[in-house]
Amino acid sequence: MEIVILAVVIAVVALGAISGLVVSSRKKKQLPPAPPSSPSVTAPPAEPHVGEEAEPPSAEPRRTVEEVELPGAGAPVAEAEPEAPAAPAEPEAPAAPAVEVPEPTAGRLVRLRTRLSRSQNSLGKGLLTLLSREHLDEDTWEEIEDTLLTADVGVAPTQELVERLRERVKVLGTRTPEELRALLREELLTLIGTDADRSVHTEPGVGVNGEEKPGVVMVVGVNGTGKTTTTGKLARVLVADGKSVVLGAADTFRAAAADQLQTWGERVGARTVRGPEGGDPASIAFDAVKEGIAENADVVLIDTAGRLHTKTGLMDELGKVKRVVEKHGSVDEVLLVLDATTGQNGLVQARVFGEVVNITGIVLTKLDGTAKGGIVVAVQRELGVPVKLVGLGEGADDLAPFEPEAFVDALIGD
Ligand code: GDP
């Protein structure tokens, strides 16, 4: 009998000790400000929005349960649980980091028009000057042709344009500068195309399980073209348009890419899903879309690695990322990022990527640093896909939706 009583006393003391441990371990955890969240694939930035304090408390008790379960005692958990609300978390809520408000997207190209000054002088104004010559002899037409070729318009489009210009100038007879400008504007617009759908498709759809799925955009291209920067800038474009965005850092090839992307995301309050360095890009992309679905985001942007080691390697990697993401539902847009300053090289890249993955839109970066604005025409011809966005500088809001009219007006002046 005494032994039984002794055993009960020991049990009670032990119980008290364990629950005391649980409470103190919880208290210890709650004291430091904002504990880092789970070290798994998802490493979200400090979320500046409402409701974040709900997350740490809901994660903590779960960890406590696991700790308590280890010694094999289930009962104390029930006792420990009710004490959870006792720890007041409110006063510790960290001040939300300032989230930037990106500039509206409408009219960006107009704002950035002066950045095209190199293309402006050599392509637009160059052509106008040549066409204004009193005698349009063969040499002049050759110069016009050279101007177009030098600006990377491409051989076939150059010949088409020169032919059309020849015809129309003949019909026109005497030419006033205004007439010439109008004529050139019209012909350049025809060459670039005004009917294409240049919107970036980001509309939410229905996932494989019938749930609402965010619009999914994959950003592909050779490293160094400005892919990660463009993904970050695009997040800003979308946020500026009132959308919520989740970023997937699936460029695990370049060491700093994930940090870079996360920084872009934090600036506009977008969560970044990332994995270990050198991790599997497809699984990060998969998790990013999963996260997008879970937090009901409007759009998930996935930055990918663009190693042009071999075409099959690239095909395997990008193909796999796409296939794996499609387990959630459709990929709505595949944007190819090309550096406008690389000329023919860019066109070769376009060709290879076009064979590897179904490109739905082109982003031309660094148009601010080149006289070769004609690449817009050439690359569209090469891929049969429209240029949707253009990069005109390193500033956060220097990515503009591509508008043919504004572009041509910038080239030839109003
Ligand atoms: P990634 O390897 O393709 O992801 O390349 P990054 O995004 O890191 O960009 C490479 C460099 O290009 C960075 O220094 C960017 O700031 C720069 N860059 C990207 N877009 C533009 C642009 O439109 N204009 C200019 N001038 N620089 C750009």
TrEMBL record:
Residues 25-102 are annotated as: Disordered. GO terms for biological process: SRP-dependent cotranslational protein targeting to membrane. One of its GO terms (molecular function) is GTP binding. It catalyses: GTP + H2O = GDP + phosphate + H(+). It is a peripheral membrane protein. It is found in: Cell membrane; Cytoplasm. This is Signal recognition particle receptor FtsY. It comes from Streptosporangium nondiastaticum.
